[in-house]
């Protein structure tokens, strides 16, 4: 019997929450034009898309990744009522078919096209397939990097090479853009562990340390052997031990612990209500639903972000020593904020940005902590950047750099926490910035 998931009855996460849960669904919605692919599904694609959107509204899952959301996208959105939804990138041959709907907002949404594709078994190169990236923000100070993937299909040699390249591309992107962060990868990988040549899906465990809830919860933690006979799934599937190409993978971070509480194939929750096709599936893919729990660390936290998604990603989190305490704070700035730096009591130093502007520095006294930060943003070269920073310590001392604007936000550490590092994006200046807090 499948687990009952209570997404629709879970209250919205409070801004001050230190733990919570969310439901995550991945669903290939078979949205290619009927003339190109029927997907062997009864009913018209327009009506099926409307039914899918209606189910999304009814179940209220917290975050849903869609693949093949091409030419019937508007019909899904017509009947769905989630508060946050990506704009389509276009129909088949124009867009990637990747979209996300959610009960919570995100930042830094990006679409990435595959470096390699293959038409050996179909027409994967017809449309710019790839993956999307977003930093999902279900609660204050909680960020989880979500990836939505649709890899190359087929089992010819060129298909296998393209698909393995696709998934390696995602793994490398995670290493670059999700350093130090919690991560969830969801989507149609077109890959199975049991296929001997499907090496790509295994890279997420070996390279990115991502866990698979299907393996952990349904296979007793044992990954299937490559080349072994696979237990194939019906659609909808009545068992969870069989393997499909759609996957959900995840990891936590030093700030956000993630746990997968349940895993289910839920195609039986998305069936046709038209009397002529009553009970038939609405897509040739069985959607996957995972119920996640999250909790914030008792020793390390993070602020919200200030600024825009430009420059190179950095995170001081993986390099934090145990029990970090800031001893010297240094900024550079003039018209805008050029750099930020902090030296810890054990000698560890973190510095980000360029060498422009004037340098100012503040040495903290014994028992003095950096607890409050004002950041102001503005536009430069059509990019949102941080123009100004002001640090205030527990002793009332201040340090500021740059030029204040009329768009400012104050970030205050939780009681017993203080700034010890940074995460964000930077080049010659500080484009995007969030603060890492540690307990003292």
TrEMBL record:
InterPro entries attached to this UniProt entry: Endo/exonu/phosph_ase_sf (IPR036691), IPPc (IPR000300), Jacalin-like_lectin_dom (IPR001229), Jacalin-like_lectin_dom_sf (IPR036404), Sph/SMPD2-like (IPR038772)
Residue span, Jacalin-type lectin domain: 300-439
PROSITE patterns, per database record: JACALIN_LECTIN
Cross-referenced SUPFAM superfamilies: DNase I-like, Mannose-binding lectins
Keywords noted in UniProt: Signal
Molecular-function annotations in GO: phosphatase activity; sphingomyelin phosphodiesterase activity
Signal peptide: 1-16
Any one biological process term the GO annotation gives: phosphatidylinositol dephosphorylation
A Gene Ontology cellular-component term: cytoplasm
The keyword Signal is assigned to this record: yes
Name of the protein in question: Jacalin-type lectin domain-containing protein
